[in-house]
Design goal:
312 residues; alpha+beta; Rossmann fold; 2 domains; 4-stranded antiparallel sheet; 5 helices
């Protein structure tokens, strides 16, 4: 056991130091600050504007009410872009945001929340020392109203997931809505020509050539779709015959390849069995759905470069 002796402080003077930290917004007029940015952009060869979300609008502890960038950031981008056509916008955000000015700027670079080395990495990318080779793991809508799910507040303690399988790019394809940036999208500092696609058994081989002037990396994405089914994701004749409902297409596999200028490379990608299976709730297991499938070698969802047919 431990015994503590607590001194009698009733006769001692009370001395305390108190402080608080308070985050305040800009103390200067927003229009004045934007005007200064415009003047700096007008005198520069290239303008770099960094926009971001904050913990006040995006965090793990609450849901977002919209997809807008906070404050006057959209106004800032538009003003700078009007003053300098070579405007690059760097987006620090952890999830999709609306970018209503995306067609008014020279480039958009998504850096997510990069951490303490973000500045050094950003400099390497902007100066061309490194290629921005990432691909979107989410779909970015043009506007909040295009998002498949906008109601996320439970009613009477319940939240119904009525979208079922149709989440992300599957929902956009079903509804016929074109996003601002599709799932899997991403650009680099070179271009690629998709030359051939061969599917044998459970293996797909995609040959492509770097047609640009710089070395680069491409992510070849394979989507599969039941052959002969209309796009839109409704239950097709094949789906009805097997008592299942499936998306119009879905990602089956992907692989990254690298090549120098003018070089050709082949991506060998295994098609997993799960890509052709559905979950059978009654049997409690995965069930294979046979038939003809279209295999699509794509740069991103909806950006199909080559197709082949596979009989399962």
């Amino acid at each position: 056991s431990l015994t503590f002796q607590v001194p009698d402080t009733s006769t001692l003077p009370l001395r305390a130091i108190m402080f608080s930290l308070l985050h305040l917004g800009p103390q200067r007029d927003a229009d004045e600050l934007i005007a200064e940015a415009v003047e700096a952009a007008r005198a520069a060869d290239t303008a770099v504007v960094v926009v971001a979300t904050t913990e006040r609008v995006e965090s793990e502890g609450f849901d977002r009410g919209d997809l807008r960038l906070p404050g006057r950031q959209d106004d800032l981008v538009r003003a700078v872009a009007a003053a300098n056509p070579n405007t690059v916008v760097v987006v620090n955000a952890g999830s999709p945001v609306e970018l209503p000015w995306r067609d008014e700027v020279a480039a958009v670079l998504l850096t997510w929340f990069p951490g303490q080395e973000g500045g050094a990495a950003l400099a390497d990318v902007l100066l061309g020392l490194a290629e921005p080779g990432g691909r979107l793991p989410t779909t970015w809508p043009a506007r909040f109203s295009d998002a498949p799910v906008t109601e996320v507040i439970p009613a009477e303690g319940r939240l119904e997931y009525t979208e079922g399988l149709f989440i992300g790019y599957r929902a956009y394809e079903r509804q016929g809505i074109a996003p601002a940036y599709p799932f899997g999208h991403g650009l680099g500092y070179t271009d690629w020509a998709y030359e051939s696609l061969e599917v044998t058994g459970s293996t797909a081989r995609v040959r492509l050539t770097n047609t640009g002037t710089r070395p680069g990396r491409e992510v070849v994405q394979l989507y599969v779709a039941p052959a002969g089914e209309a796009s839109g994701g409704a239950a097709s004749a094949d789906a009805r015959s097997t008592a299942v409902e499936r998306p119009a297409s879905w990602l089956a596999a992907f692989a990254g390849v690298e090549a120098g200028p003018g070089e050709s490379v082949e991506a060998e990608i295994a098609l997993p069995a799960r890509a052709f299976e559905v979950w059978d709730e009654e049997a409690g297991r995965w069930r294979r759905i046979g038939g003809a499938y279209e295999v699509r070698a794509s740069h991103a969802h909806g950006d199909t470069r080559l197709t082949a047919t596979l009989e399962v």
